[in-house]
Amino acid sequence: PSDGASSPVADGATPTSARRRRPGALLAQAFALIGPSGSVPKLLEAPPYKPTDCLNGMRVLSMIWIILGHTFLMPTAISGYGNMQDVVESPLNRNAAENNPFMMTILSAQSGVDTFFFLSGFLGALGTAQEI
Q1: In 12-109, which residue ranges form alpha helices assigned H by DSSP?
Q2: Burial of 126 (0-12, 13-18, 19+ CB in 10 A)
Q3: Which of 42, 50, 52, 66 is most deeply packed, by most CB within 10 A?
Q4: Contact 29/35 with Cβ under 8 angstroms?
Q5: What phi, psi does 89 have (nearest 5°)?
């Protein structure tokens, strides 16, 4: 109905200025640090408060606990504890891991797995219930 100078492009066609954009420009914009879609402004803005934010923090702590446990327990050559006799104190082994609080924290990392799965399931179900 008008001269078409200010009307939007119809039928899914792109304007000529968008067609002339270089192929790498969209990729560069996706990884830009500054600008309207840059990473730095988004890092500095505070997200709105949600009552479940502390649960995400607990999930991060249990993830760190899991990584710590896997780091020391999976490769037994790194941790130095290759069998259960090295963990439990006995008359033959007075320098056992159960006397070391740091090592007991690593050995109890299974609790971190349980906590992580519980919190992830709860937050996922809560997010799904809020979307419905």
Answers
A1: 16-19, 23-30, 39-44, 53-73, 76-79, 101-107
A2: middle
A3: 66
A4: yes
A5: -75, 135
Place 64 in a pLDDT band, splitting at 50, 70 and 90: very high
Helix, coil or strand: residue 90:
strand
Q: CB burial class (10 A; 0-12, 13-18, 19+) of residue 68?
A: middle
* Separation CA 9–CA 14 (nearest Å): 7
The one-letter amino acid code at 45 reads E
Q: What is the C-alpha to C-alpha distance for residues 127 and 37, in angstroms, rounded to an integer?
A: 26
What would the pLDDT profile of 9-35 be if each residue is shown by its tens digit? 555 555 555 556 677 777 777 777 777
